Amino acid sequence: MLFSENFKIAIRALRANKLRSILTMLGIVIGVATVVALLSIGKGVTANITSSIQSNGSNLLTVSPGRQQTGPGGGGSQQASYLYYADYQLLQRSLKDDIAAIVPSYQSSYLVDHGNDSFTVNVTGTTKDYQKTNSYEVAEGRFISDGDNKAESRVAVLGAETAKDLFGGLTAVGKTISIKGVKFEVVGVLEAKGSSGFGGSSDDAVFIPLETGYGKLFGSNATYNDKKIVNSISVSVASTEAMDNVSAQIEFLIRRAHKLTSSDELDFNVLSQSDLLSTLTSVTQTLTIFLGAIAGISLLVGGIGIMNIMLVSVTERTKEIGLRKAVGATKNQILTQFLIETVTLSLLGGIIGILLGVGLALLVTLSGAFTAVITA
Amino acid sequence: MIQTENLTKVYQMGDAEVRALDGASFNVDKGEMIAIMGPSGSGKSTLMSIIGCLDAPTSGKYILDGLSVENMSETELAEVRGRKIGFVFQQFNLLARTSALENVMLPLTYAGFSGKDRNDRALKALDRVGLGKRTHHTPSELSGGQQQRVAIARALVNEPAIILADEPTGALDSKTGVEIMELFQSLHRDNGQTVILVTHDAYVARHTDRIIKLSDGKIVSDEVNKNPIKAGTKREEE
Questions:
Q1: Which of B82, B96, B102 lies nearest to residue A327, judging by beta carbons?
Q2: Does B1 contact A at CB distance below 8 Å?
Q3: What is the CATH number of the domain that holds B110?
Q4: Which of A4, A23, A148, A353 could be a cystine partner for A33, CB 3.0 to 4.6 Å?
Q5: d(CA A157, CA A172)
Q6: Are residues A205 and A106 in the same domain?
Q7: Tens of pLDDT along A310-344?
């Protein structure tokens, strides 16, 4: 007898028991669908975070204060450490090659109000190049200029979210806002950039010239031992190849400025975007594997479901098997028939599951929560 | 057609040996219609599975239509079943939710027939049992008698050497049972079909030309029935 005949017999047997066939398939359908959906959503989240980090510019080195965490027992007293405005000036003077921009910033939360509305917003004192290193686009007006810093002008640039909160849909440029009681003129509004991926929106922010901040807003909070401090210094490097070299130079310069001997631990960090990226990628990958494992278990359960049904159906169908033997079927032909039935159910269930999973992933994408990425 | 010599079947039940069949010897000629009778436990079913090539004897000789069966492999036995023997069961054993035509085609499929040839033969067999107009009905749409006719058509379709019927009227009311016996007799009379009925019903057995009685695995009588009842004539009281 031809294999195709045996195939037809198996399909006929499946069709003759539609309900049983569908229920058997259901386990595999659900299992495969969850695997596909969860993995593609996981991939999407990873891609989402990656792209939001890369939108900050991938050749960015961030210098921030703080000791590098040592392992337990290596502690001792945790001294507060600071980065100074002087460090920025040092870097500005000393670093020459391969540097696109060096941007200091000092951040603090203040009550910002306009008319009767007031909000607590992160106010960042910074310089002109901040816009470039953090990939902001100006929607209206302009960003902070070098002139603003030199003249300590009281000007402010608003993030998209903050502009909406304070002014609704109205024009903000030219209006006056007050930050902790100090009046600032709004000179620009930024384009919305979306979530930064770390919770908190990078659109909910106010930017002012750093010098203006030191002179008129931050007060004694922004000094330590009469030295002006910054929260971070961003160094945008011209090429990826030069990153390591520049990073080493920064370490050397600031170490010397902070009078640390070679045996002292650093009291600042130099972090590149790619370090951050690899940390986050490994986190999301772990998450994806975890979700995949859960989905895999449901797939396994589905597979066991098929095994179970086939086993039960063999015992339940002894009469049918006996009859088929009586009319001339060999053992092998009957085994083949049952195998084909099982494989067909699994295959069909798998295909339906993939379609369902892809559909689910698309639905998630459409709903806007994440972008699911489906890979072959 | 069938020659058996000292057929013995021994089952091992733990330590005890059960001799389900204990040296049965008989011959069946081509075109005969015989009944094998006996109470339950007499070895009837064992004998039937051996004649039907579903099971091999522990010892003894069995020649079916010139073929020595006792030493065949399972695959060869399957082929013999498919080509030489047509089974009819008490419970019809049709495939559910499958049309009469497809049920009848089943043995042909396993025998390697396909396409138009298979279809034509199955239609012919259904026509022979009087169901030429019900080929596309499924078993649940047919009466018990009609289902048994489909089963008989399925047994006939390979033009087997013998038809082996196990209590073919057991699940039917007496009127329908008579109709089925009529069909067997007509196959025997008009087509020269060899028919072996296995039954415990003496009335059914008396429709055949010869009655073999079994008890405790042995043949206790093998007699020619001189006046077989013609099915459809009035049942006489004993």
A1: B82
A2: no
A3: 3.40.50.300
A4: A353
A5: 10
A6: yes
A7: 888 888 888 889 999 999 999 899 999 999 998 99
Give contacts of A325 with chain B, Cβ < 8 Å. 54, 78, 81
Q: In this predicted model, what pLDDT tens digit does every residue of A54-99 receive, in sequence order?
A: 766 668 888 888 865 544 444 444 456 888 999 999 998 888 778 8
Chain B environment of A328 (Cβ under 8 Å) = 78-79, 81-83, 107, 110-111, 158
B75 alpha-carbon distance from chain centroid: 21
| In a domain? residue B90 | yes
Is B109 a domain residue? yes
pLDDT tier, A369 (very low <50, low <70, confident <90, very high otherwise): low
Q: Which of A241, A266, A291 marks a domain boundary?
A: A266
Residue A76 belongs to a domain:
no
* Residue A375: inside a domain: no
For B198, the enclosing helix (H) or strand (E) is: strand B194-199
Of A266, A290, A313, the one marking the end of a domain is: A266
Nearest Cα neighbor of B237 from B209, B208, B203 is B203
**Distance of alpha carbon B221 from alpha carbon B35, whole angstroms:** 12
Look at B110 and A328 and tell me if their CB atoms are within 8 Å: yes
Overall number of domains in chain A: 2
Tally the residues of chain B: 238
Q: Do A17 and B97 touch (CB under 8 A)?
A: yes
- For residue B117, the enclosing domain spans 32-57+73-224
Secondary structure E strands in chain A: 60-65, 83-84, 99-114, 117-126, 138-141, 155-158, 176-179, 182-190, 205-209, 223-224, 227-230, 232-237, 268-272
Q: Minimal Cα–Cα distance from B116 to chain A, Å? A: 14
Q: Do the chains contact at A1 and B107, CB–CB below 8 Å?
A: no
* Residues of A within an 8 Å Cβ radius of B: 1-2, 5, 9, 12-13, 16-17, 319-320, 322-333
Q: Considering only CB atoms, which chain A residues are within 8 Å of B96?
A: 16
Q: What is the pTM of this model?
A: 0.68
**Is position A130 within any domain?**
yes
Domain that holds residue A31: 3-52+279-367
